[in-house]
Amino acid sequence: MNLEDQIAKIVRSHGAEFYDTETVNENDQTIYRVYITKDGGVDLDTCADISNDLSPLLDVHPPVGGKYFLEVSSPGIERTLKKPRHFQSAVGERVKLKIAGGEKLRGILESADEEGIILRNKEGEHRYSYPQILKARTYFDWANNS
């Protein structure tokens, strides 16, 4: 079982789902972030409980070299989409894509499977395979949701 599988198992034991990880450097500190999702939203108590349970695992299997800080949080309303399951969980949401060749698109994610996605925008429906998608993220239309 790889480290992400072990993290996912701990996250699931708290009634949440493992979303992704990232390692960032902020203010000369390395931060290892574990992103989780949960029906009804992620609260601070859940993040703290998962962090407490992950710490012993990460002490034995460090996710990065050197000193780091562990942070457990929600990926947020505007989140990066990398894996097929990320796209599948975002069906029906607004997404921004950067496609190979530099084209930038916005639209509604109509569907997603293991091969790719269908994006609907004012030009119609378009299918993109995952290798064609360089960057993707959900976005919230703040102007129309007040």
Automatic annotation (TrEMBL):
Required for maturation of 30S ribosomal subunits. InterPro entries: Ribosome_maturation_RimP, RimP_C, RimP_C_sf, RimP_N, RimP_N_sf. Residues 7-78 form the Ribosome maturation factor RimP N-terminal domain. NCBIfam families: PRK00092.4-1. Belongs to the RimP family. One of its GO terms (biological process) is ribosomal small subunit assembly. Keywords: Cytoplasm, Ribosome biogenesis. Residues 81-140 form the Ribosome maturation factor RimP C-terminal domain. Its main location: cytoplasm. Gene3D superfamilies: RimP-like superfamily, N-terminal (3.30.300.70). This is Ribosome maturation factor RimP. Pfam families: DUF150_C (PF17384), RimP_N (PF02576). The keyword Repeat does not apply. It is found in: Cytoplasm. The keyword Cytoplasm applies. GO terms for cellular component: cytosol.
